[in-house]
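Notebook entry, structure prediction.
Reason for the run: the old model in the group folder had no record of what sequence produced it. Starting over properly, with the input documented here first.
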Amino acid sequence: MTSNYWRFVVAAALLIFAWKGSSLDLEWPPTDTNEVIPTPTPELLEWAEPMRAVLPKMLVKDRIYLSRFYDAMAFVLIRDTKREKRIVATTGDFVQFHAGSLQLAIDRGDVGKYTGLGEAIDETFINALGPEQRLMDDDDRAVLTAACTTLAYVLRVGGDE
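New structure, fully documented this time:
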């Protein structure tokens, strides 16, 4: 196993720890910065249009759970941006980070619970950043963070209206 693999595992574990309400010495939301992630604009909401078909079929508790998950992912991406050597440096790194975090966050029996959900989430990221694998620049990272925030927004109850 490569050292990057373990970095993703550790990052995902910390994400789950913080996300599940355990105690970390991190202020939430990240008020130590001047960055505020805005409510998604109509253009950002267009990225998540594939989610519209799935959201009405989801239980409220599952929507809240995933909304918090993507909010936490946006927070982790913001923190990673401030690192000298970024852990999530390429779109491929993000794919691994996202998949690993989901594997830790979602019970195996719940995988596939909502037909089309995984595909709609993937389409949201593709709509935002495109399908090609590449090294991410600061603009790409901002777009990826906005996509996570947009997913968090539409997954929360009332965010899909």
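Summary: The first helix runs from residue 3 to 19.
The old model has been moved to the deprecated folder.
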